[in-house]
Amino acid sequence: MKFQLLITAAILLSGIFFGFGQSNEINTFDCFSILVGKDASADGSVMFAHNEDDWGDRIVNIFKVPVAMHKPGETVQMKGGGDLSQPEKTGSYLWLEMPEMEFSDTYMNEWGVTIASDACLSREKNPEITDGGIGYWLRRGMAERAHSARDAVKIGGVLVEQYGYTSSGRTYCIADANEAWMMAVVNGKHWVAKRVPDDQVAIIPNYYTITSIDLSDTMNYYGSTDLIEYAAKNNWYDPEEDGKFNFRLAYSDPGNLENMGNIVRHWSAINHLFSNGYEIEDEFPFSYKPGKKIELTDLFQVLRNHNEGSKYDESEGYAKGNPHEFGRAICSSTTQYGFVAQLRKDLPKEIAYVLWLAPFRPCVHPFTPWYFGMSDMPGGFAESNYRKALETHFNPIENVFEFAPDNKFLEFVKDAKKVDENYGEQIDQIREQINRLEKEILQNQKTFEDRLLKMEVNEPDKLSKSVNEFSMEQLEKSMEMIK
Fold this sequence. Notes:
The protein is an alpha+beta fold. 32% of the residues lie in helices and 22% in strands. The protein is globular.
């Protein structure tokens, strides 16, 4: 099947802005994710690459939330007013919090379960919602409770069916050291999840990519039992005319599938990682075997991509200005941060799970490792603390630079905006600095981990201190570079 390449002038002029379902969320369609199975990566890890894109100037608070015990009957009140029951115990996790935003936080928990998402418009206009529905608390609920990616999918499915999802639609990318999943949710109480094969890579911009499903194959799929029946009832799917059920075609907003911002980003990434290549008109697969084993640095480069060297480079090699002034690029004007989660088995959890983070703009900022085993977050990367942050998460912020003048994340924001003023003349030198620094950090990582594995595993304080020191050393090199 060929993709239709229609896109309206209104979408082009508006920078591809859309309104979302029940939540009235206004967001740009620029988030982007890649999931790499453990047999498709060079080091045997599951990898999860993601650019988080959101409108406006933002801060990102980074917290380490400890294990928490809860009293019988304890609940939390969700944004829509409903109560979510707390389990007896919730796990520890790294939390990248973006104040005000309902669908933008990233989590990595103590079992390596890492969760972020990509908005996907659905065609559902009459969602079933109970007790105000669930939005923000869906991924947080999964992160606090799940011991595996598969476990997170099951938990998420129960929550969607209990409350109903409040945004138009979304795909949650969920990974651990064994498996990677995509969980597509629709406004209301319908959802489906598909496992990424271990030897394959899956890419998603901002449209649904799950096509055929087989809910009887519970090794690879989960979902609403009435998913096909409900689509047929709403005239989104006709078994006689359409043949085999295709979730993507049945539940997607049709215009969303034709969005060139989505298609070009998908095409650009798939051709970077797949040696045989695809044409822009081709139907892209849910997942595929890459041309070679995927390295961390391959994913770094994709998250930095602006379609350089192709006819979709609208800056024409930066001759027309910085590439963030134009749409349809993976690294865009709305990118708030990029990360690659490196999730490995058979290592102590303190070093097994690594969040390689590029604050704000991946193309001008290096990725540095934030290990799950860090007990203390670097100073200056969070306002207040994790308890206060949850209480005030939806409070409006008029000006982030006035609200958090000393926040170190904003130093990366200011640096990137300054580079944009003269991008073409600076980027080659910046790339050289980034490549040199990331090569050094990757070499340091191996030396550090080899040394750490020789430590006594029953010395958690010593281990934690070493992880803190190493992570801070690498981050300081990044901070020094932007100065």
